[in-house]
Batch of 3 targets.
Target 1
Amino acid sequence: MMQKLLEIKDLSIEFSSPKGTARAVNDVSLSIAPGESLGIVGESGSGKSTIAHAVMQLLPKSAKISSGSIFFEGRDLLRMSAADLRSLRGRDISMIFQDPMQCLDPSFTIAYQLVETLQAHEKLSRDEARKASLQMLQRVGIHNAEDIMKRYQHELSGGMRQRVMIAMALLTRPRLLIADEPTTALDVTIQDQILQLLKGYAREAGMSMLFITHSFGVVADVCDRVAVLYGGRLCEYGSCESLFYEARHPYTRGLLEAVPTMERDKALPLHSIDGAPVSVFDPPKGCPFAPRCSRCREDSQLAEKCLGSIPPLKEAAPGHSFACFIER
Amino acid sequence: MSTEKASKPSSPARRALKRFAKNRLALFCLAVFLLILVVCLLAPLFTSEDPAELNLGNTKQNPSLAHPMGTDILGRDILARMLYGGRTTFRICFVAMLLSSAFGLFFGLLSGFFGGTLDQMISRANDGLASIPTFLLAIFVEVVTGAGKGNYMYAIALALTPPLIRLTRNLVMSIMGSEYIEAARALGVKNSRIISGHVLRNIAGPVIVQIFSNFSEAILTCTIMGYLGLGVHSPRVEWGTIIKDGFGFILNAPLQIALPCLVVFICVLTLNIVGSGIRDALSEEEE
């Protein structure tokens, strides 16, 4: 088997809050091979961002990793010293965020922030760092890079800021890029440009990506494999192809049916999944999706089983697993 | 894109400065205050009188060409005393402001940035500090370190520190959730660098305003301490002691206390107007 770049094993994360303990992530195992892109799909509150922050070790103080481990190139991130983690962050693993409006410091020029990031990891003079930054800005498709370097965040458009943020994340040529819904705040044409940019760079540099999104369209475009998360649990996990054509979990199918296509009959309403997401404070004893599952509603015997115990991950095909009691 | 190219990059600080420059009242007040400050600091250039020289044949004079602010009960030139006294007062206030700013920023940044137990400890200690009466502390300092040397400035510094710690802490906490701080962390920037760069620059506005108002507060407190008899001893003077000297003759020579009070009044008023001018210039940024 090939050496994994990132390996998450049985990860569980809890948040303590005045309302009680919230189990945001439950027994999630994922892995990413070098050069591979993994998409994590799920709705709000499914724990996808929490996983990303856990990999970066940037969870808020109220969060606790209750079990599991995260290995990056065989090194356990959960046992690393703060200093080692800091030098790992930004050099080996970088992250870009959802809202490019907010991630650049309004008080500093773009140049300052790029140079700062680079100098945090490499012994470079200001001039060298500036030069490298300029090249990276051009690499991410900013043509008037010289001018942009002198600008402040509020003087740039949203797409431009996201490009700058991407340039900042890629400056140190990381081996893994975590993208936390990087295109959600952008309009559709810019979204596509940004996705193509990331895809192109990743292929060229052999960089892996952990892509967090709630859009299957984005996953289909960018990722090799995909993990579907519901209620903090893994529902289905496999290559994009097998998952898209042979989805086994009712939740994944529901999501796929909800994706609008050009061919669909416009007279029919868009498919939606009934019910509301599970409460993280009071997780159900069984399959978290069971209360919303149409199959469970039709079959009371099945419902009893699903509501009573958690279905284990089973293999549907090599490299494609799902967590559901329904066989077909 | 074309407009982006045409315009010059503008930093938030530069824009605030531009707005401040449009505020005529604040500019005027700044000029008046600086004038008083410079004249006091360069006292020997503006008066040939010795502030401590007695002239018992020439006491309690009204303002004249020879003595523009009159003379006091011992015949000393009040203008000379105000100028030299201003030096002492400004020195005391400056030290108090500097010390309180250093402590306030240091503990406020620590408390806000790291949060948790450290924050609890600093905040509770700060609450305790804030509950000590300034005058009691000043008397204590004077008694312990020897009276009349102006050491009560440490008490003033201590009195100005708690609000600054609290303000800094709250400001830091409010920007700690910002994505740009998280982004800087995610890209591996060192904590020390994040504090001295991103955090400090983004809380600078309100902190500068607070430090400014601390200075005018220090002038007032300093004057009151001098007036109450905690001030520096002769031959040195400060504004508070001049006002105290004049108080005894408030009925038959009212100008002896009125003019020094007016100077203090003008200082504090102009400083406050400049301070609110800075605040306005900075807060328009948020709109």
Target 2
Amino acid sequence: MRKKYKLLILILIFCSVKTFSQDTNLDSILDEQMKAKTKNQTQYTEATFKTTRLIDGHTVETTQAGVLDLKVSHRFGTLNQGFYNMFGFDVASMRIGLDYGLTNRLTVGGGRSTFEKQYDGFLKYRLLRQSEGKKNMPVSVTLLSSVMFETDTIALKTEKEISVSPRTSDKFSYAYQVLIGRKFNPNFSLQLAPTLIHENIVDSAFNPNDLFAVGAGARFKLTQRSSINVEYYYQLPGSKLPGTYNTFSIGYEIETGGHVFQLHFSNSTGMTERTFIAENTGRWSKGDIHFGFNISRVFTIKKPKQLKM
Amino acid sequence: MFQRLPFKRYCIFLLILTMAASGFRKQPSQLYLTTSGKISFRSDAPLEVIRASSTDLIGLIDITKGNFSFKIQVHSFQGFNSPLQKEHFNENYMESDKYPEASFKGKIIEDVDLSVDGAYQVRTKGILTIHNVPQERIIQSDVTVKKNIITVHSAFTVLLSDHNIPIPMVVNQKLANEIKVEVNATLEPR
């Protein structure tokens, strides 16, 4: 008899335990629901870099659809020019350009530089976006193709050592880049940029028309709205024009609403791929350091559909 | 103790216990769920109005106990005046990578029976967590029950300063400290 009772008691306890276990925890159910919901979603990484230029070079970022980005870039003369030239203040090189986002992935842009009176235009396409979730992509990849047209004939003639006036085709150079970037965490982003520069004319038959280089750039965030940026372009051995040096730049970036201000030091005068990757004659060790700044201001021309409410 | 109880009485005692237990079991907690509630917010600053919304609110109400829990992925908000503004919302203000969720969980203060059809105005008391800063809040809500479906409508304000979200000087004419929030959700039995 007693055994039976004990059994019954056990069953009863079991029943009541079961009742208590039904006292559900709302949060755990909610978390399950959230997991199920986000499992099928892809979270794309935003703002690997603040803007589409790191210092001189492009970043993996593209201008968003319907957004016009006005870029004003300035490089003063070199610091070693002394007091008479106010350490470069009296000499300035400028580029003003516009970038426009045709789609979120495709950007078209162009500009005019005072350095060697150059026009440039580019197309930039975001091939892959870093993402997590349903689609997992460790890096962002952006393709860049740009064309540069140098109209300073006198500079071109001395630079390329030609005596006759250059043909129109001689004034063109092209740059192709594959930008591979990753935002490792909210404070650190890194990118690599294998680059090919093609110059239609070089100063001697011994020099290659196709120049290969690899660029690297990084952003270290200091505060919510400012960061330290560094950029280095390494010309591969054997594809280097004589008297040119690798470009290293370091800068501070701050954003305020629709503006991004970048202040930096660089050994390059030019601000387009041809000039800062293939034809930079400045050297840090000689004090050929330019102080410069970029200002980026975005205007929303067309409000994208997904943003309308 | 059992040896002293006569067998019959003991059986009755057991019977009562079992009935009580099973009676308890007959009322399992009634859970109502939504996975597509809508939240919208609005910032009315002197120079700019910013609006955004999300339809990814998930929430649960336990009508037997009167407690509830709601959550949203901050990244799911769409709207804004420009893509850059959306980026700033996630990157600089909400820090959505660090604090991906905002939540409100608590209890209904009034003693209402939400298993009965009708319209109720209730106060809810709970913890509102935004930007990883919890704040105890009492929020008024309109709850309508009809054919086993619960509709919740609620409007309240959130102060950015309450949740440790500073407004930089340069945008203090473009972003209000007081954000108006509206919630609309339809919950069905789970």
Target 3
Amino acid sequence: MKSSKLVAITLSSVLILGGCGTTVERVDAGTTVDLSGAWNDTDSQLTARTMVEDALSRPWFKKHMQATGKAPTVIVGKIKNLSHEHINTQTFIADIERELINSGDVEFVADATARKEIREERGDQDLNATEETRSAMGQEIGADYMMQGKINTIIDVDGTDQVRFYQVDLELISMKDNRKVWIGQQKIKKLVENSKMRK
Amino acid sequence: MLMSLTKGRSTLLPSFISYRSFLVLALLLLSGCSVTHKKVNQLSQSLNTNSPEAVLTQLQTIKPKEKDRPLFNLNIGTLQFLSQDYPSAITSLTLAKEEMAVLYATSITENIGAATVNETMRSYSGTPSDLVMVHNLLALSYLFNNDPDSARVEILQADIMMKKLIKKDSNSGQLASAHLISAVIYELLDEQDNALISYKFAAELMQARGTPLTNDIKLALTRLSKELGILDQFDQYKSEFGISDEQIEKLTAKNSSALYFIHFDGVVTSKKEVSIMVPSYHDNRNDQLIRIAMPSYPNVVRNIGNATIDVGEQDIRTSEIENVNTIAREDLDAEYPAILLATTSRAVLKYDAVKNAEKKDPLAGFIMNVATVLSESADVRSWNMLPASIQYAYVSTGEDNVAIRARRLAKRKIALNPGSKHVILTSSISDKLFHYQQEKSIY
């Protein structure tokens, strides 16, 4: 091939391939979109749903109902990210909370940060709100159980290909006596094949 | 010499251009081609006298080309880290990390550009060391931003990257400093088993590169093997390193405070261009000029400095864990055969292009020759705001305070609570002290 032709091809390739701009397409929030293979909203929602369903179908729930005659009150504590990815565990906690509340099977209480803010507001009501509308102090419901957990990963890498194995471990601990009444585990395995070539 | 080589060439040039003026023009334009890279290289060397904050301000005035953006973000992120602007450093370095990940794949168009014009037509995708070092700086940025969990994520990513880059016959992309920082973060998170493995990897790499194993690493290996109850290994390290029972007792004493002290010394050397321009002879007459340019690291004699930590009556100095100049040269050496092959292939291609153009029209041939000579330049881009040396010292003490000293840092005291763990970082080019104190988790 003549050199001048090669130069012409180079210039054309750069112009054609370089012309592709950014495009944005709105997609339904429920659509599964895997771009990088990293932990995403679909993983978070599916894991939360599966694990909460599993937790509420286990014997501890029936035992609690039989012993107390009322639905258990649950709080979600810390979920530690021990994975190799920067995972926003707050969104995963929010997904778990949503599944627990929407199940209608358990009572749910606010976490420590939210409680602090509410107490401040209640303190303010004590001073400023009318007697009829004021929420009194000392009427909070204490949680019976706390859900805690961690997200772990194992990565196997070969060149541009990766196998990503995620393991989410959650446990429900009795506040009264530290008994673990339920342990759940959810595993996700992804094969990520990255392109060896780009434009 | 160049002039003598090109005597007689003037007969080929159009009458309105003298050969001398052609050379002057060519050299002038050549010097202008890589002005941005040279400016960045000058800024990096100015860190020896100017503060990181001042250099950051100057660097931010430069508008990088799209293909240099990952490198620009690496340098900006490093200076933001040294200026203790951790959120900005995290943003810049994360961007660089993501850009380099995308650029890891081979580009078709950039390769064609590099094969026909020069090596700088490729986007800066990072050397193997860059791909790991970015996690080091991100881990430290997160840590000093009081987020050890995110720092842990970065050291895991560094580990994956090093596994990805591993080669049988080379240590390219394998950083002792990455393993050391991993070990420190694991210790802060009370994961002593993982910390021991990381110290072992750091020691193996130091030995593989001929860096003397520092006393602090020896003590860490011995201390952790004892704490974890791996007694056969503990006995082996104790005798191999000549560590006394008294030293071990002192290191593992309850209520002692632990200080993991990292020191960045100097600034890594920038690449330089080495080029030759020779006339080719074709059909028994002077035909055209051929220019070949290669990147290289100049030989620089560097005085290694240290930082000091005063503990009671004792002065403890940091020792080198990683010579960043050495690993930068290792990366270039590994890449050199490919660069040389590409450069010579390109010279042949350019020679053919000029010859073909000259056949049609001597003036077109001349213009093409000027273009091929001017476009030939070495890729001297490198992450050059990094320290030249990464050093470390470990202190376990019952004292209630220690004092830190470094080149630009006036003596600074740090109060210690019994049993507390601290990470301290100093840099010879900064007057700042970087300090993280472990927060005990309530869980």
